[in-house]
Design brief:
Helix content: 55-70%
Number of helices: 10
Largest sheet: none
Shape: globular
Radius of gyration: 19 Å
Oligomer: single chain
Amino acid sequence: MATRTPPALDRKLVVDAAFSLLREEGIEALSMRRLAGRLKVQAPALYWHFRDKSELLGLMTGAIYRQAQDEVGPCADWREWLVEYGRALRRGMLRERDAARLFAIAPPVSDGDAAHAEAIAAPLTRFGLDQSSALSATAAVISLALGWSTFEANGPMQHFLEGLLDLDQSFDAGLQALVRGFEPLAAPGLC
């Protein structure tokens, strides 16, 4: 009887397995030891790919951010892009079990270097927004999506809010109001 050899590990494989574990068992079960067991390796093997669990969590949130960015289609301007990104990010957070808690505990993977800031701002700077305004607007939209997904992940709070309002419509109205209120620092005529 031949024994099955586990696949060679790489970051993507481990992050995908971590999401599977998160979906099936929740954030409390997301440990390096349990993840290693799922991948049929010893826990130290994971540390060839990640400094620690915090880095893994940061990469998981990064994957949700990137997926939301990828879901945004063609937009006429930076305000439309922000609204579409906010909607996509909220959907991404609602798709993943315990995503709000994951975002609350995951540290950023980057040290905040200039290249990372430029990458975050890029979808909006392409529309003429300056980097500082783009980063501020993106952070505000992320905060709104995270706040709403936190409410929606809390069963009693979600039930309470659903008795008062339509969550989708209310989120969308708040998102659009937030984005309309931004005053960019871009040169006149660029936005």
